[in-house]
Amino acid sequence: MARRKRADDARDRDSRATSSPKRRRGRSLAGELKSDGFTPDIALRSIDGHLTRTGTQVMAWYRLAAQAWSFRSDVQREILIRQIAAQLGELQGRWLHLRVTTRPYPVHMWAESFDHNALGRMPDVAGALGWDGFLEGEQRHLMGLSMSDKEVFLGIEVSGRGMLDRWADIAAPVLDRFLPAAARAELAALESEVNHLDVLVSGAGLDAVPATAEDIAWLMHRSVALGLPAPRTLAAVPEGTGRWETEDLAAFTDGVSILQEPYAPTVQVIGRLRSQTVQRNVAVLSLGLMEGLRIPEVDDPWMQHSDRLPFPVEWSARMYIRRPEDVTGELQRQMGKVRSQIRHYTHDHDLEPPMSLARQADRVLEVEDEVTSGLTQLNTRLYGWWRVAVAGRDEAEAVQRAQQVLEIYRPKVQIEHPEAQYRYAREFVPGEPLASTAYRRRGSVTWAAAAVPAATASVGDRRGIMIGETCTATRRPVAWDPWLAQEVRRASGLTAIVGGLGSGKSFLTGLVVYKTLRAGARWTVLDPSGPLAELTRLPELAPFSRHINLLRADPGILNPYRVVAEPRFEHFADDEDPERAWRREKSLAAATRRRLVLDVLTGLLPFDVARMPHTRIVLLRAVREVGGAPDRHPGLVIDALRRHAREGEDHAGVVADFLEERRELPQAALLFPDTSREDPWAVDQDFRLTVLTMQGMTLPRPGSPREEWTDSESLAVELLNLASWLTQRTIYDADRNMRKGVALDETHFLSQVPTGKVLIDRLARDSRKFNVRALFASQLAGDLLRVSGFASLVNAVFVGRTDDEEAQTDALRLLRVPTGVGYEEMLGTLSPRPRHDDRPDDTPRQFVFADGHGGVEKIRIDLEAPHLEHVREALDTNPDASRIAVSGAPVEVRPLEVRAPDEPADRRPPQRLPPGRLDLDGDDIDPEELGALRNGQRVVLGPVGTDDVVTERGMIVSEDTDLLADEDLDLLDDLDLDDGYVPEEPVHGGGSGVGASREAGR
């Protein structure tokens, strides 16, 4: 075999050199033997930055940016294809080498970033899951999932190399010493051309950047050792210059052998990994005939099909962008042949020519018209060869995977399995020649651009909590930092979680709250139904958490005058005129309190009484008389109504009577404080987690009109509104730079109350200034869209299963996804479940996630890691009678580990890794060997995730509910009354927190 023969020749040369040593001229070291010099087994001769040189060619290598394909309109996709085609068309007369490879998800890099970004973590609790255990468990779970990132490289021929250039390479050691300028003359001459290519490929479409020295090293390892597990460590990058001399290339080729038996369907790749010999069989396939694909109307990019397979796939494509004059000459010759054949039928034999000849003639004329008219760079022709490589542990597995590639491309694309596998495998190495000109494909640059090789799932970030994985064509982890938008991108922290019953909104909210709490955030959660209160009972959170059932709390805890925080002077230190801004906010907070108590008391009245115009007038006069100071309460408003009744305002007495009646209800006591008792909120607020529940409260049916609400339902909506305002109070009580979170459930009722809309708007505008992540959960996206400006202020969006057509359209508007192109139906297929399955529905829920900065993908929520089993059980809200024994004692039921039915059946479930050992690609490794502990006691596993093996993956609304501007909150707009409110003097420090944004009224 070729490889073995070269090895034998090398050993013969070594033996001859050893048997007959000759002394060099000049100085030499003792025992030094003559050497013929090192010649690498590959065609590459040197690497300079992102330039590679062979004996005949210089190529510049670039790394292509990931391109989003999912949830884009066909128009946007066509624009992307045209942009790529235009860039390819500008490369006429050049050879291109396209390489698509994979890199294991960098688990250790994510862990280090996450650990560094987790500021102000809570102390560990003895006997509970500590931070080190939590971080280690997250890493082990990620490693077991074995996911990778797609990386796309493009090599562009800069120029050919003449004899003088090759001589300069041979004499490089001497020239570097005596004439360094001559040694660099070739690269200096190419500098302007390389700069031109750098600018050309950096435009929209390819979005490419020059490959770094580390990128080139990674590409060389993945190409020379094709199919072998990813290396733990890479060859050291030459310091400063990033240049590999000819002798340095041995770092890529040594220790790797490629062998092939005659007529074998695979090649055998043998290499060393962690001082062990590793062997893989690689099958190389070639792209054959292809039918006309309708991209993007019907079909996906044809190179993206392989991303759906549960194992890594390597691509290598060699393309030549043809010049128009060459294409025109060939077309004329082809047209001459067709005309000659037609004349042969008609003139010589007096027969009608076959229709195939007419079609060929029409196609030649069509191509000629494309080349000679319009934007020629979009119609430039090319020819090339596309190869696909898959690897297996043995020949049978490699052949089986090759068959899967064939099946996934049928029937529109033919995939061939050629012989001469050794030469085809060498094509993947930069600089190597073509193995064969067989299976050459011809087409336009638009056809080649429609492959969109860089299309992948790109959503989330690399420093936040792990919330799941993508479940589209590409499978990769999804990390999300809820405070990245506010701290880095200067964007809003508003988040919408939308979905029908059972879509997983509460589970997702609990996941985000738990993991961000571990990372140092502080949360206030309003969960009317109460399942999230279980988080406060977890051992690691219990000492820092509290659960408050508002329906059983102290009287006055929902006093409308107290739930709106009082602005703090220190929050306005950055303004040009801090005192003026602070006084304006105090006035706005007072107006907000007056409007809030007006809405609450109106909501307590019967609908027929509340809709009377005179009711609003008498209530408004009483509220204005009481004022908007934080030490007031609704009982003072009733007293004012009584005084007005004694003064001759009969309707004021009627309203007061109805309010007194409602005041006797047990739940209404929450609005009226007991002045003989201490203020329930004048206590230490140093809690990491506060969960407010209202268990037993009856809310109206979503979408039901206001006139159909019962008295208890009307009271419930007003209490929910006040409880929501209470959650935002905690934002302004803490330091504005501290990472804080507010989670509100049942927010669809807030959109029906004017002050509820004001609350949503205020949280949206203040979230960036006060570093808040606000989660709004609702069954219908339309309820949130009723809030003016919500769609423009929302940052991240999660949309679960939604069946109603109107609700689906509203959800897509929140996601900023095109409507009317088929995505509505997809929302109805999220979290699918078989019809005839009576098992508990424990499948992980699916959401469409928009991360707020361009990424939109379908993801699967993941809380299946073993170290979070207790969290999963705490968040499980599904009823199950089997959990109760006959005697009434609870029975422990472990949840089933199942996946959604639409996910590939051959995808392996997450690998459960036992403590203390890591199974990486079949090799049992002790994490102590990998440098498990870093940053003192922080458990950050070593470069296993990046540098080790990726195991094969197998409502009706009344008109008065419109949102009012902040200036309209001032009730002077309603009646010409003098409030008599005089702002207090500024107080430095103290106070109850700021209650409104400085920007809200501008």
From TrEMBL:
InterPro entries: P-loop_NTPase. Residues 1-16, 897-909 have a biased composition (Basic and acidic residues). It holds the Pfam family AAA_10. Residues 1-34, 897-923, 975-1002 are annotated as: Disordered. It comes from the Bacteria. This is ATPase. It comes from Pseudonocardia sulfidoxydans NBRC 16205.
